[in-house]
Model the fold of this input.
Amino acid sequence: MDISTLTELLRETEEHHGPYEATAPKHHWSDWYAAYIVARENGRTPDEAAADAALHMEALRR
Done:
């Protein structure tokens, strides 16, 4: 992945993390970002990746 692609993906991730962060329990942003980015790299849509990241965070709390 080149720098401009990664930059775009990080900005997209930040945009989708905002709604999650507003209602989520205390967490470290990097856990959500990592799950989102991996999902996007695996071909998931932004909405699917956000849902995957939320599920990942839920699993971490268990």
